[in-house]
Hints:
Helices cover 14% and strands 30% of the residues. By secondary structure, the chain is of the alpha+beta class. Strands 12-19-16-17-14-13-20 form a seven-stranded mixed β-barrel. Strands 7-6-9-4-1-11 form a six-stranded antiparallel beta sheet, with no helix packed on it. Helix 1 runs parallel beside helix 4. The protein starts with a strand and ends with a helix. The mean pLDDT is 96.
Amino acid sequence: MPINVISSGIMTTIQDLGRPGYYHLGIPMGGAMDRLAMRTANLLVGNPEDAAGLESVFVGPELEFTEDATVAVCGAELPPRIDGEQQPTWTALSVKKGQVLSFDFLKAGARAYIAISGGIDTPPHLGSRATYPIGALGGVDGRAVQPGDSLPLGKASGKARPGTSVPEDYRRLPGATAKLRVLPGLYWHRITEESQRRFFEDSWKVANEADRMGYRFQGGRPLDFVPREQPFSAGSDPSNITDACYPYGSVQVPSGQEPIVLHRDAVSGGGYFMLGTVISADMDLIGQLQPNTTTQFVKVDMEAALAARKERKALIAAIREAIC
């Protein structure tokens, strides 16, 4: 039986852990911006960690249930309400047939993940139900959820234990000043040593241009480029390069002005230099940044990046043990 969408908030999309394996064809991996929150919400309702749920930005949807279910809301602090009664986040909640799930106003973070027992069972495209609107893939006819939609559910596992919650120490959100660790990359040498130093010294703020493709940052000092003869086929701007592939998390700085961190729905290549890459362990945090959040980029080496990835895996394992 489906759940009926009464209202959809600002931007609510069906997401899972994405469709890896097509980036070389220009199709990004996509999926939840905050994967730790998506995985945790699924664990709380007894779903596989890669089951499809809802990703809501800033404002939650209003959903009517046509069968009993278990739900969990993780990620941003967007308190759920069941028939108007406020409920805790990061907790497995029982919803009865006919009840309505709605949301209070946003308290912290940017994206909430709503998992429902059984998972959303829309048709997969290229192995995923994740919505990729630019490519009209996944979701509901390739688009975000809208009022009047009916979202089908899969068969619940029966493993959910309503009332189970995630210890607060395991709930990850950025602090008042977000710290994003960056590994300098192939084009690091394109900016002067002075600019290399300033990039990590300066405080930046999240711009209004912040979405699933990428986050722009403002407020730091412009970067100066090392003089060179433009390579064949590169554009005339000093930040241009001969077209190359873009990794997830890569940091472009067009014209040396405002860094852009590419995220889950990013384009796969282009002609702007990348000074480095935000490490994989911190990509979830970007998805929880609101515009105007103060941000500090922190330089790390490969050893530190790998250690952070190991810590993140350990955190996921600890959450599994706490819930299951």
